[in-house]
Design goal:
Strand order of the largest sheet: 3-2-1-8-7-6-5-4
Largest sheet: 8 strands, antiparallel
CATH superfamily: Quinohemoprotein amine dehydrogenase alpha subunit, domain 2
Keywords: Signal
Number of strands: 8
CATH architecture: Beta Barrel
Number of domains: 1
Shape: globular
Order of helices and strands: HEEEEEEEE
Distance between the termini: 31 Å
CATH topology: Lipocalin
CATH class: Mainly Beta
Length: 118
């Protein structure tokens, strides 16, 4: 159960990382993205990959297990919130062309993320 929670937590963070706070009119980032997340601690899970979608700058999860909300700004800055059950994470960063990177944090864990457009 502990490892299952780690994987779900990591997936939530990954989705959250690609969502952004600014105005949601950024169609240049629309499409499918793969997000790889890393944690600063092995107890929080490490190496999860999650598929997400961006539509008109709005972020959505491609997984029924993870809820994602947020936006991508026209310039590529992102801010996202991911949740599954009672676990929640927020991510910040930047997309540029076909890739992106940033950081995420949750109640007990932090880490980094990278993204590639599919």
């Amino acid at each position: 159960m502990r490892y299952l929670c780690k994987g779900i937590f990591a997936a939530i963070w990954a989705v959250a990382l690609l969502c952004g706070p600014a105005n949601a009119a950024s169609t240049s980032f629309d499409g499918a993205w793969n997000v790889r997340i890393s944690s600063s601690s092995e107890t929080c899970g490490n190496g999860a990959t999650v598929a997400i979608g961006i539509n008109n700058g709005q972020i959505a999860s491609s997984s029924a297990a993870v809820s994602a909300s947020g936006r991508v700004a026209d310039a590529g800055s992102i801010n996202v919130t991911l949740s599954t059950g009672i676990k929640r994470a927020v991510g910040f960063g930047r997309l540029s062309g076909t890739s992106g990177s940033g950081t995420w944090r949750g109640a007990l864990c932090t880490g980094t993320w990278t993204a590639q457009r599919m």
